[in-house]
Specification:
By secondary structure, this protein is an alpha+beta fold. It folds into 2 domains: 50 residues, no CATH class; 69 residues, no CATH class. Helices cover 36% and strands 19% of the residues. The protein is built from 5 helices and 5 strands.
Length: 129
């Protein structure tokens, strides 16, 4: 698959298409990159896609993003709420690669907010990382 992007901005001009298209002025023909534009960004200097550097957290660093009261609320919830336990266990097993922008992370945080164990302010702060 191919796409045509603007040489300076990386904005998709056309595509994706199966047959290699012809580039116009200030355009570049490139192979479609899996994840663009969510996980990749266009580098005009390199004339190609590069990974977006997003923060990733170890489990302990992740837990430290929550105020102590919310940490206690989450741990307490894991004793009675299977969904809270699942969210906690998955975060623990993903140690070293917790991505705050991952939809699964945000869904889990949203659940904890909905139950009142995490504040909306904490959710917003983490979602903006």
């Amino acid at each position: 698959m191919w796409i045509v992007v603007h040489q300076d901005t990386g904005e998709i001009v056309s595509g994706p298409v199966a047959d290699e298209p012809t580039a116009g002025d200030n355009e570049e023909v490139v192979r479609a990159a899996l994840g663009y534009p969510d996980r990749l960004t266009w580098s005009p200097d390199l004339r190609g896609f590069v990974d977006i550097e997003r923060p990733r957290y170890t489990f302990n660093a992740w837990v430290d993003l929550f105020p102590l009261e919310e940490q206690v609320a989450i741990v307490t919830a894991t004793m009675a709420d299977p969904m809270a336990k699942l969210i906690y266990d998955r975060a623990q097993s993903a140690s070293g690669s917790i991505d705050p922008a991952d939809p699964r992370t945000l869904e889990g945080l949203g659940y904890l907010v909905g139950k009142g164990w995490v504040s909306q302010a904490t959710y917003d702060r983490i979602a903006a990382l």
